[in-house]
Amino acid sequence: MAVKLTTNDDDLDEAHDINVTPFIDVILVLLIIFMVAAPLATVDINVDLPASTAQPSPRPDKPIFVTIKPDLTLTVGETQVPQDALAGALDAASGGDKNQRIFLRGDKSIAYGSVMDMMNLLRKAGYLKIALVGLDAGQAAPSAPASSAP
Prior knowledge:
This protein is of the alpha/beta class and 150 residues long. It is built from three helices and six strands. The protein has helices at residues 21-43, 86-94, 112-124, and strands spanning 64-68, 74-76, 79-81, 102-106, 130-133, 145-149.
């Protein structure tokens, strides 16, 4: 009869499972950081634009204004013209110079599509330099062009 003199009751069995609780805690913290940081990164892009040294283009002595009235009638200068005669009226006003800038004015009550149709008519007539005329915030009369298309 054999007797075992030493007992190892305080030895723990090895656990072969991975403790994933710290891993889940780290993943949740990273998820919260990305959820907060991602919208902040895409809302505003700060760009320091270079300054332009170009001089503003001078306004011609006798500008050619094409005006679209609220009832969609057209005038070249002060003369009312139908849409199909616009190219001829512009050729007469510009002396056939297709490189001359055309200043396009439109009543603010007309639809954007009407302005686009007019720009298409001007391009079809061969006038590619079109300036859109607007009002300055403190003025009540048309001012220099607000923007232009090349």
